[in-house]
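Two proteins, back to back. First:
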Amino acid sequence: MTEIVRDSNSRKNQSEAATAGGFSSGRFSVAPMLDWTDRHCRYFHRLMSRHAQLYTEMVTTGAILHGKGDYLAFSPEEQPLVLQLGGSDPAALAQCAVLAEQRGYDELNLNVGCPSDRVQNGMFGACLMAEPALVAECVAAMKAEVAIPVTVKTRIGIDEQDSYAFLCTLVERLIEAGTDSLIVHARKAWLKGLSPRENREIPPLDYERVYRLKRDYPGLTIAINGGIKSLDEARGHLQHLDGVMLGREVYQNPYLLAQVDAALFNDGHEVPGRHQVIRNLLPYIERELGRGTYLGNITRHTLGIFQGLPGARAWRRHLSENAHKVGAGVEVVEAALAKVPEAVLDYS
């Protein structure tokens, strides 16, 4: 179902909220993760941080232009929100960029980092690192059509093409094309021989290379991604770079987001406790159930919110065993919530 596009006033208010405290929303972001950061996940995450920048899953140009579903749907509450695009046809990317801007997305991001075989077969993702001129053409084509920022997410190298000079060649072309910012996953990708999961774990992290990139190109806004597991680590990276992006750590321990606004944006607004976050999610669940969404499609993103607390296992088990059943509703969530002692509160 198509969501209502926000009006100009809501766009202005959202922009002001995203930059409160003098920081851009890109200072902290949640990584785009295929099959994970769908619109239900993003709504849930936004309940814990109003400044963290959220990303869609990667959406291909083919899906947007020729698919049967609405691949651009989102709830306004998710913003600031970035649409990550997968593709290598400048014209198709430009067309998708226009559609995304019309729908109210805050930013566009081109995926030049995903190493999966499926992505490579479509000629996009990490394999595009070997085609810097084409990547630059894609960015320039989008920027020519929209006013919102156009950014790129990449790796530090691919296969045997992993020299610093190789990375700089891409970066210089992106700067010439007008790229607004760059997010760098501080690992290279092996296009053959490793699964996407192994590509997130086996190639060694090289944070220093990303720091060096910022020193050599100080005018380019650069954020770092890869292996970051805490806000203390994030603060360390922010001594060298403009932004940090966390992925799986946030997904597996989502209440980490409750610390972000105060820790990284100087925003001391009152943050709801874990139980209240779930209660705040219930109206959304009821709305989505009314649209035909299965309960489990939403609750699967909430399983880690009580991580490390008494009752966390019972919470996960009850949802895992019952949320998928036909007719499952908010009473399943309420019953699961009752299994976690509310007297035990942990805001750390």
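And the second protein:
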Amino acid sequence: MTSKTRKVAIVGVGFVGASCAYSLINQSICEEIVLIGRTPERAKAQALDLSHCMDFTHARTKVHTGDVTDCGDADIVVLCAGANPIPGGTRLDLLDSSHTIYRTLIPGIMNAGFNGIFVAAANPVDIVTYMVWKLSGLPRSRVIGTGTSIDSSRLKTLLSEYVPVDPRSVSGYVLGEHGESQFPAWSHVTIGGKPILDILRQHPQRFGHLKLDDIAEATRNAGWEILQGKGSTHYGIANAIASIVRSILNDDYKVMAVSAILEGEYKLNDVCLGVPAILTRQGVKELVELNLSPKERQLLAYSASVIQAAAAPLGLL
């Protein structure tokens, strides 16, 4: 019996890239990880440190360093290379530096013979994802960004503290930009299957203190709160990446809010933003087009316009 080794290449071995590798190893998601960084010594040290986890994990994952030529036979290339946002700015401020990195990196990966799936985590992730799609020439189904997956998780965690329930009993999505114009689609948020809007309406005395606008703002600002406290966000997004990678490799058909290229969905075109998508071995199998309220459709269209306006100077549209 033969089996194919599941191989993931991680480009960028800072906090996010290393934490992603750590999550992949501890969850036994793949058999091989190659770390690619601009500083070979740091990449080697990360690989060595991660390899010392194996005695304590359920399965062995081969971890080693490499370069873009090692991406040729990878199933998934995770893109983590990039700078952290600066407090007081926005993720969009990182666009120029990310463009400089990926306009040369992606052609190099494609020239190595890569024919798998890109998972982008670098900010501004929606524009980086769109950029990677344009530069790679791959079908839109095989270029995915982490998008609002982490924001949706933050929303569930915040709601679970107010209700209170296990965060995994909360279902719902943050849509749009992974940034300032994001918003929770409250019309589709449920707790134990019951719409949050019904809960608030039926139990005003019990949950009258729960202000949806405040929760939306706390969700949007959660990353900045972490950044100001310790300088980077990496554990949450690393697990989000791991979940996306696992869903792809295991052909899970799991629905997650990821950054995906829209071609007519939600009446939007030529833009990449956070929406629910079905993830399979082929990448994005299908985008889930929610029946949004009129206000939510306006918010999504506005978020798309913010992303497109920021991307326009790069000549990608």
